[in-house]
Each structure stands twice: as structure tokens, then as C-alpha cells.
Fold this sequence. Notes:
Layout: H1 4-14, E1 20-21, H2 23-30, H3 34-46, E2 50-53, E3 57-60, E4 72-73, H4 74-80, E5 84-87, E6 95-96, E7 98-101, H5 106-109, E8 117-121, H6 125-133, E9 137-140, H7 148-157, E10 161-163, H8 168-187, H9 191-194, E11 203-204, H10 209-219, E12 224-227, E13 233-237, H11 268-278, E14 282-287, E15 290-296, H12 297-308, H13 317-322, E16 326-329, E17 335-340, H14 354-372, E18 376-386, E19 395-405, E20 409-418, E21 421-433
Parallel strand pairs: 7-8, 8-9, 9-10, 11-12
Antiparallel strand pairs: 1-3, 2-3, 4-6, 5-10, 12-13, 14-15, 16-17, 17-19, 18-21, 19-20, 20-21
Amino acid sequence: MSTKHEQxxxxxxxxxVGSRISVRGVARELQxxxxxxxxxxxxxxxxxxxxxxxxIGTVRIERPQKKNIERLTFAEVVNIVEGTVLGGRDGLHKTxxxxxxxxxRLEAIARYIDPGSLMIVGNREQVQRLSLEHGAAVLITGGxxxxxxxxxxxxxxxxxxxxxxxxxxTTATLINRAIYDRLIKKDILFVEDIxxxxxxxxxxxxxxxxxxxxxxxxxxxxxxxxxxxxxxLVGVVTARDIAEADPEDSIELYxxxxxxxxxxxxxxxxxxxxxVWEGIxxxxxxxxxxxxxxxxxxxxxxxxxxxxxQPQVGETISDNVLRGFEEVVGEDGSLxxxxxxxxxxxxxxGTLAPGSLITLIExxxxxxxxxxxxxxxxxxxxxxxxxxxxxxxxxxEVRARILDFGRRFAKVDVEAYDGGERAAKxxxxxxxxxx
Length: 435
């Protein structure tokens, strides 16, 4: 039998897109406390099932798909611009395809308006009306309000009309930033991207050690999750745990009762680091305490190798730091990154920021190691010494040299030079992610 929390999530998922949801209504409908209902609604918001807005409430929305992740719902736009919904609340769950800035003559605007668009405009009532008539929602900037006729038309067409206090440029920038952030997240691998629906090899809580051996023979997996009658994870058992156990003993006596787990929203990089750090080969994937999959070290390695071959759409902070730096390989196997310190890489006083320097140091070290041996690895420890500040527009050279490279770990010495003078020195220790 599922828990009350799970029942509420299933109830929310069954509601039609656009339905209004309230803590009191859910508590009354499912006969649960308002605290339980509140926690479940927050969980549904994290899963992308609902969107909550001030003065509006919570609305059931369509969960964004990976291929359409750059699209926003009008409900999300309200939160992004800290806006107020003046009308058309029944259309908040709809998805916008593009946004248009109404800074042109009225007769020229119609050609840019498509159904599902968002018109960003000030207090030009004719543009607001024309947009609604052509199937586009309206975002009024500058804190202006809409007339009763416009609000009535928005309600009839079920197209939101939103007001915010920002100017048009700031509003468009906020929306564009939200889309841009989603594009970056689209390129980040999450556990849900590589763990699909699969036949799980699991043990039940009441089974015995001999059942473990039978399952290992059938599947070839030596690290197995243990679940209860409701498919909730209660432990993990390995061959080492039951090496000296009697075949008739209960599996509960030997399993690890608090295993490390990940969720579908955990990044693959984070999961890889946990595997290396803890020295484990498999991580159970849970959702609402239920086991929904397992992540093996082989899954992680394949995913990371595939990700390295894919073109990136969104640019992260690291991309901005590394842009313009060229790689130079020395005869002794060392590697150097050479480039200029841009204004984006500096702090408030115009010198190279610590975060930018660490990005350069880590990147040079990883590149140097990969040229020596083609393996995946994660940085375990970094010790950094600043010797002198590096000003903006300076040309710096970050040199990485391998000190030790074993089967499971590596040590790299990195030095940063500004105009021939050593500006910083670092020692990195990495762990190798092996099959």
C-alpha cells in the first residue's frame, strides 16, 4: 500500500493540465493533514508537475520534455518577472513558443504574432487587443494595468495578460536568461537520462543468503538492492557482506541498511564522484523512497564518454573562462593553457578572480592527465597558493605537470605565470574512474 505522500503525488499527476490546486483542497479531498498536503505539493513542484505563483495559487502544468526544455509556461513567466496576472488565468498552463517585443507600428506587428506567442509591450491597448485576437498572451511592462475590455477579452480567449514593474528590456532579458539556463541544463546529463525502465534484480527483505547466490548466477550482478513489500529500498548487499554467512541466514543480517542513493535529478558527474569517493560499483536510484532503478559504474563511464563527444549549446561560466585559451604541449609531456585575462574573469578590483583561476588550473590538469592516459577522473583535492595578483588584460600561462599517475589516482603540479613571473601554484589529487 502506498503512503499518503505518494497518493497525493499520484492524485496531482492525474489532474488535467490547468487545474487549480490548493493545500486545503487536497487535504480535504484525500483526507490528509494540510502539512502532508503541503509537502507533497512542494515535491510535485520539484518534479515539474505544478507551478506556484503569488496571489494566484498552484496550477497543474505540463511537465517539460527534454526536447522542448527551452519553452516556458506562462505560469513560469509570471514567477520569472515577478508579475501579476490581470486576466486569462485559465491559460496559465499553456506553453509559449516565442516572445515578441511590441516596439513597432501597429500595422507591422500582426506579421510577427503567432498563436502561443507572448507579446511584451507597455500601455499600448491597441497592441494588447491585436495580440489577444491573434492568439498571443500579453505581458505589460512598466507596471501598467489593462482596461476592463482587455481583461474580458483575455478571459474569453483563455490567454494570460500579465503585468510587471520592469521595463521592456529588463523583462525580455529575464525571460531570455531563463531560457538560456534551461539550454545549459539540457546539456547536463542527469541520472534520468541514462536510467530508463529496466528489469531490476532485487532481493526481498525476507529472503535468505542462498537466494542472493541464485540471483547472482542469473544476472551476473554481485551488488544487489533489497526492498520491502512496497518496493521501498531498505538496504544493499554485496558478495563481501555475505562471504562467511550461512546460506539459510536472512539477508537482513548482512545488508548495509543505509546505502548511498541518488535520485533521477542527480547529475551524472555528482554520481560519478560519489562512486569514486566511496569506492562503490552501483548506486540505487530512488524516488519517494521507492527503488526505480540502479546506476552502475559502466553506465556512468559510457554516459560521460558520450557527453564529451556532444556539441554544447549553452555556455557555462567555465566555457566563458576557457574561451580564447589555447593548449600548448611541452616536450616533457606537460601541458599549458595560454590566454588573456578578460573582464569577465576578474573580481571587483580588476584582478583575476579565484574561481576563474581554479577553473583554469583544474582544466589544465585534467587535459594533461587525459593526454597521458585516456580515462575519466574527478578532482579529489586541490591546494592553491596565491603568490601575486594578476590584473585584467594580462597574458597568463597555466602549466600542468604530472607528478604521479597510479592505477587509481594521480597527482598534478600546476603553476600560473604572468609575464614570466609565477603568480600562483597548486597541487591537485584526482581519482580515476575505472570500469
